[in-house]
Specification:
alpha/beta; Rossmann fold; 2 domains; 6-stranded mixed beta sheet; 4-stranded parallel beta sheet; about 40% helix; about 15% strand; binds pyridoxal-5'-phosphate
Length: about 300
Amino acid sequence: MISSNQQVLLPILAQKNVSLYLKREDLLHPFISGNKYRKLKYNLLAAQEGGYDTLLTFGGAYSNHIAATAFAGQENRLRTIGIIRGEELYQKWETNPTLKFAHQNGMQFKFVPRDVYRNKTDRQFLKALTSEFGSFYLLPEGGANLEAVQGCEEILNPEDARFQVLCSCVGTGGTLAGISNSAQAEQEVLGFPALKGDSRLPARQVLNQDIRKFAKKENWKLISGYDFGGYAKITTELVKFINSFKAETGIPLDPVYTGKMLFGIIDMVRKNRFQPGTAILAIHSGGLQGITGMNQKLKKKKLPLLDI
Ligand SMILES: *Cc1c(COP(=O)(O)O)cnc(C)c1O
């Protein structure tokens, strides 16, 4: 499956003579958005080939991966179990749009406190989960494994070789690794982490190491400074940027990943980080299901909302 590249037309891009295209992976599937579709593809095949009837995975309350896994499980007649971070959600998950959607698609939840959630890769913990739920195909948090990276290697197609710069959002970095692997060695692959890193250098080093496990080329690097305080953190400046980007280009962005990346790209264009004549392709990795949940949070804080 190939998604189309849409040119972004903004005065600042014309002024700096930089062309920017967005690969509309957000339009791949109505419910399994963007890179989650790519990351699930070979995992679903592996689960079916292994004879599993259950998928088990991990995520937070607004996780695109949780929503996507629930829907994909339903479509492929696999039972899905979500280990959800935050015990307190047990009382109120029905008011959370992501969890409600996942439940409507058959996902069974286990809510765990944050300190227990941290054991998500621990052998003993996984063994205990097997005793509780029976055998399952394990999708790691964020869906990042070899099969996921293999799927993300299919995002680019041969025509994309004409771009000098490729940009990807970064959570676990699985998507970035896939892009890097299928990019040309001379293309520059930039990753925009949506999680906090700067003030805690070790966290960023861990991310770099994780990506290196899957990325075979040296053509990529991480760009700091556009995480807006960390995962699912948002400011009024970012909300305004996402709203005006949509008004001016017609393209919706999500508040957790793609909004931060596009903010970063436009800021870098403004600061002359790209040579005149540069052609940039940024991957719109989806995530639009998260807008409703984010607006609930913004409303509670009496802050400006994202346009829908
Ligand atoms: C999950 C997600 C990402 C992060 O992908 P990784 O492969 O974990 O880095 C980026 N963008 C969107 C929209 C996502 O939902």
